[in-house]
Specification:
CATH architecture of the largest domain: 3-Layer(aba) Sandwich
CATH class of the largest domain: Alpha Beta
Helix content: 25-40%
Number of domains: 3
Radius of gyration: 31 Å
Order of helices and strands: EEHHEHEEEEEHEHEEHEEEH
Number of strands: 14
Distance between the termini: 98 Å
Shape: globular
Structural class: alpha/beta
């Protein structure tokens, strides 16, 4: 007897002449294999099979960039709250981390796989690293590049979030309003007067990243909505005669957490902020006298500069402000 393997089946063949029983067994095996092929084909091409293959592929990362300033934090009302050795600066460093953590939690609830937090206030060394949610990374310390408060952002991010932000210099009914430092009176690009949130949104937009959420005082939330058109946000306080009427830190953090989750989930409905190149800058300052290659001291307390490169515009701003 010879044993012949046929597609996993073993058929007994006696001698060289197949018997009728052997032929019958062979036909049964051949029919069974044909039926298996007919069934396997549609299953392989079915939506269920496609979903199974898709599930086995690694998910694309969802990266969120969070820039955190201090003047717009819940409870902040004077300059002693955001720097120096007196006042409540040490306390508000903790609040800064807590509002950042609320934003991180909201982003992660919305599906974020990576979160980068940029300490964006003053020296950029305000948040204590140990106070930050361990699921995020912290970019801490002043940088020499023009991105400044947006250092670290690139086109791999899906959304940008601003926490603790404030209104631009000269804004009425605002808390600690200023633009970058006390010397700047106004900063505009292509005729559009910009708060820090405005030119930071331009940096994000340069990489195709929309700003989806802003938290700060009522003045900056209104200002950013006017500028960007559509942006989610939470006003944690509002100015009343240089005092503030605001949320408790815990209530502010709850609102930030929920708002960031909502905004990141809806990120596809927001558009990156952009102005058309070339860019024309007008910077008005209280005291001039600084220089930048190509910039013109066009009038007392005023500089003008033009470039097709937005980051070059911001380099001029940082040098002349």
């Amino acid at each position: 007897m010879t044993i012949s393997p046929i597609a996993g089946y073993r058929l007994a063949v006696v001698g060289r002449i197949p018997t009728s029983a052997t032929i019958t067994m062979f036909n049964i095996a051949r029919t069974a294999l044909a039926c298996m092929a007919l069934v396997a084909g549609p299953l392989a091409a079915s939506p269920l099979a496609a979903q199974s293959r898709a599930a086995s592929q690694p998910a694309r990362p969802l990266k969120v960039f969070i820039s955190v300033d201090m003047e717009g934090l819940a409870g902040v009302v004077t300059s002693g709250d955001v720097g120096g050795t007196t006042g409540d600066y040490q306390y508000f460093r903790k609040i800064m981390a807590q509002e950042a953590n609320a934003a991180i939690e909201g982003a992660i609830r919305a599906g974020a796989t990576e979160v980068l937090v940029r300490d964006s206030h003053g020296s950029k060394q305000n948040m204590l690293p140990g106070d930050l949610d361990r699921r995020a990374r912290l970019l801490r310390g002043a940088s020499i590049g023009p991105k400044n408060m947006m250092e670290g952002i690139d086109s791999s991010f899906a959304a940008a979030v601003f926490i603790g932000y404030h209104a631009k210099a000269g804004t009425p009914n605002a808390i600690l309003e200023h633009t970058s430092n006390g010397n700047v009176v106004d900063f505009s690009i292509n005729g559009v007067s910009l708060p820090e949130g405005g030119y930071n949104a331009l940096v994000a937009g340069l990489y195709g990243v929309p700003v989806v959420f802003v938290a700060g005082d009522r003045a900056v939330v209104d200002q950013m909505r006017t500028l960007l058109g559509t942006v989610d946000g939470v006003a944690v306080k509002e100015e009343i005669g240089d005092a503030i009427n605001g949320l408790s830190p815990a209530a502010a953090q709850d609102a930030i957490r929920a708002g960031v989750e909502r905004a990141v989930r809806a990120r596809a409905t927001y558009r990156p902020f952009a102005l058309a190149a070339p860019y024309a800058m007008v910077l008005k300052v209280r005291k001039d006298g600084k220089t930048f290659d190509g910039a013109v001291n066009s009038a007392a307390g005023e500089y003008t500069f033009s470039s097709p490169d937005l980051l070059r515009i911001l380099a001029a701003f940082n040098a002349l402000k």
